[in-house]
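Suppose a colleague, Dr. K., hands you the sequence of a protein chain of 149 amino acids and asks what its three-dimensional shape might be. Before reaching for any lab equipment, you can write down a predicted structure in token form. Begin with the sequence itself:
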Amino acid sequence: MKKKERHQLLRELVQQEVIQKQEDFVDILKKRGIDITQATISRDIKELQLIKVPAQEGGYQYNLPPEMNYNISKKLARLMKDAFVSIDTQKEFVLIKTLPGNAFALGTLIETAKYQEVFGCISGDDTVLIICRDEDSAERFQRRIISFI
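The predicted structure, expressed as tokens, is then:
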């Protein structure tokens, strides 16, 4: 697994799971078939600037830094201005083309934003397929994305 993909996965994990220590990351990734060391996780945590916040169950858990939690629209707008190539819709599908290496980040930002129109995303290297709830949602979502450009 490439570093960029691993970082994205770690970002998703801290939003979905209660992860209290580095070994929790290692265990979760091993269950998913990804062999990784605690030392690599330690470096990733520093690079991602993950922080520890109080957990509801007591103790502390890893979380994204505040900037990453609150500036999704700003990051999405910046990424769209920097990497956008094209957008098209067909029924409930929206297909966004980006410069190579940017689609995975775009898909993650879209899913993190939790837009009501979006059912889910599939991201590759330069393409994001957004599955919307219906055709009207796809058209609204396309207009929303175009407004970022």
